[in-house]
Write a structure and sequence with these properties.
Helix content: 40-55%
Distance between the termini: 72 Å
Radius of gyration: 25 Å
Shape: elongated
Number of domains: 2
Order of helices and strands: HHHHHHHHEEEEEEHEHHHHH
Number of helices: 14
Structural class: alpha+beta
Largest sheet: 7 strands, mixed
Length: about 425
Amino acid sequence: MTTRLTVTLLALCLCGRLMASPCFKTIEQKDLWVRRNVDRLITKARAAYEDAIAERAYVRALSEISNTLKQCRLTEDAHFISRYSDFAEWIRVLSLDQQSDHELGFEITDKNYFERTRTFVTIPEFLLTAEFLQSVKYFQTLGKAKTQLRAINATRPKDQQLLFFSYESRHLGTPDRDNSYRRLLIVVPGDPQQNIPEKWVQFGIADPGMRTPIRNVSVVAVVSGPDKTKNTYFKDYFRTYRRDGSISVKGRWELGYGDDNCVKCHKSGVLPIFPVDGSVAAAEKSVVEAVNRRFLTYGAPRFGDYLDTAKFGPGLGSKRPPMNSSGCSECHQPNGLGSLNWPMDSVLISSFVDGGRMPLGSNLKEWERNELYQKLIDDYFSVDEIHPGILKAWLLGRSDDFYQLKSGLAKAHSR
């Protein structure tokens, strides 16, 4: 019996050693591990980008890589960090929203984020009156809501006029209902001199004839920062409809519904509005144009000191030899409208490119747009050994001579 117990314990110890993440003794082993896992995670990321079903496999791979970095103390290895600082930091920031108290994907906890940004992301009181909340409950009563907004404008100076219109989104449903695309957007002007943020307040609206109202209200606040930058802050609220007819509004996170990674969609901070054709009343089309012109004045997006998006690397269409597939990076770069880098939302990006809204000013045929979109994705996510994609080249190209050597050999062979 003692012998059997000893054998069992030895077997368990051996099994534990085999299952534990192996650490590395040589530089070559570390290099090989990084290259393999860069390819592995980029491949999983692309699969998750193209199909939400693959998200779980991506998260599992990310978690395993992050755990190995910690267990093998690679981030404490000066030589490793000198070679792979971008990779190590990329894994760290990608892992933020996998923590239960960091669902927003920021450096600080969700609780701390909402506490610190409370004064910026509150909904203006005049949008929380019982009368207004009743009027934005259904599509059929939106006319009453707009009448109230026009009455408010009659009391405000010209530079403080509300900009508002209703429309149908091309992109994403509301957090409480994926297939709901109707919106009422109200842009409330700020005052940079007094550090009062500009607020884009958006009410989800039920489709015509639907009896179940939408709960979501979102606020994106834009606060002037140094060097002509703008800091952007986010918060989702849910409306609660009571049996007595009253409506209350409280933060989605405070209500216990969790939250989403904001920057996954909001690479540019605020998003421009490209409504479904025919969903905006003729009298409000000029307001859509005015709102989008306002968006273009915000300059480079920043997110306070809560997240440095440069740590996610270059984005789609970034200029780099030997190929540049589009002019995306002319606008979408850190000092422009923000890089379109991973993590990002495929529905949003594909609808902009395939829908003909981007690249700005282009007049491409449908097949050309489809081809451009596919090239953008291929060029970004490619894990080809000789011609790595934008993401892989950034992660490995800074101090890794391997790809330069392979590329040089390929050129020599082609002569």
